[in-house]
Structures are given as C-alpha cells and as structure tokens.
Amino acid sequence: MGHSRRNMRQLAESTFTPPSHISADQTIAWIVKADGNNLYSVELPSRKVILVELPSRFRSTIWLRRGGYVLVDRTAFEGRENKLDGEVVNVVGDEKEWRKRAYWPIEFPKRDVDVNDEDEDHAGRMPPSDEEDDDDDDG
User: Fold this and answer.
1) Residue 54, CB half-sphere, CA atoms under 13 Å: how many?
2) Where are the beta strands (DSSP E) in 2-56?
3) Which of 23, 57, 77, 113 shows the smallest number of beta carbons within 10 Å?
4) pLDDT at 115
5) Contact 70/29 with Cβ under 8 angstroms?
6) What does pLDDT average to in each consecutive run of 10 residues of the chain (139 residues)?
7) pLDDT at 8
8) Can you tell me the distance from the alpha carbon of 32 to that of 65, in angstroms, rounded to the nearest whole number?
9) How far apart (Å, rounded) are the C-alpha atoms in residues 24 and 72?
10) Any long-range contacts for 1-9 (C-beta under 8 Å, 24+ apart)?
11) For residues 43 and 30, is the Cβ–Cβ distance under 8 A?
12) Are strands 39-43 and 49-53 parallel, antiparallel or unpaired?
C-alpha cells in the first residue's frame, strides 16, 4: 500500500529544512552512484567512499540523484557484520539553506555541473553531422 499524501508532503518538507545541529556520528555525504536496490555509494568529506542504505521511510517517496547530498548516520549498522557503513537519515533538499549551516563541510564546494565528464551520458543525442566537420576544414 502506498504512502498517504500527508506523510509524503511532511517527508518532503523535512528534507528542505536543515536540522539546527547534527550529532558527532552524522555527516553530510555526496552521492557518487546507486549500487542497487536502495543502496548508494557516497563520498565523505574525507574523500572515503562508503556504502549506505536508504531507509524504508524514504523509499518510493524521495528519489536520490547522483551528485546530490545526504545526511548519513555512521552508527546505524555498527554492531552488524555486513558491507553497509551507514544509513541515510535525511536528504538535502534545499542545498542553499543547508550550506548556510555551520556543520556543512568545507570539503564540498559548490558544484555547477556533474564533475565526471568521462561518465557523460550520450543517450538520446545525435552524432555530429558531416556538415559541421566540413565547416571546420574551410577555415
């Protein structure tokens, strides 16, 4: 059964409002890639890449994209023997507001576009035409 509209709206609004403070076990992380069903590789401010899980309250309600930011709790899976290093506790919705907070890591500068040019997706684009190549030869 799906989430109620009120719950979805409250969850979405909570991601746009940054918390006043975060605990020592929590950190903001940059999403590197999706690794599977509700699993994401994220980069910590220390440049270490870890695997985190998206909890059920966010599933099918909030979608994460590569290059976005999340708040990760590193102690969520502390006692377990598995490959997970943390759990997403909040999703950075309004990045501008989150960046104003004292806990935002300086290691995450503002990025205009995706930094990985080598992973650029060419799907749906037309190949360069021969006419464009001919114009370059005339000059």
Assistant:
1) 23
2) 26-36, 39-43, 49-53
3) 113
4) 46
5) yes
6) 65 75 92 92 94 86 87 83 87 88 86 52 63 56
7) 67
8) 9
9) 11
10) 2/60, 3/60, 3/61, 7/61, 8/61
11) yes
12) antiparallel
3-state SS, one letter per residue, for 50-79 = EEEECCCCCCCCCCCCCCCEEEEECCCCCC
Return the C-alpha torsion angle 43, 44, 46, 47, nearest 10: 0
Structure tokens at 33: 């890639």
Residue with token string 């899976």:
77
> How far is Cα 91 from Cα 36, in angstroms, rounded to an integer?
18
The angle formed by the CA atoms of residues 111, 115 and 119, to the nearest 5 degrees, is: 150
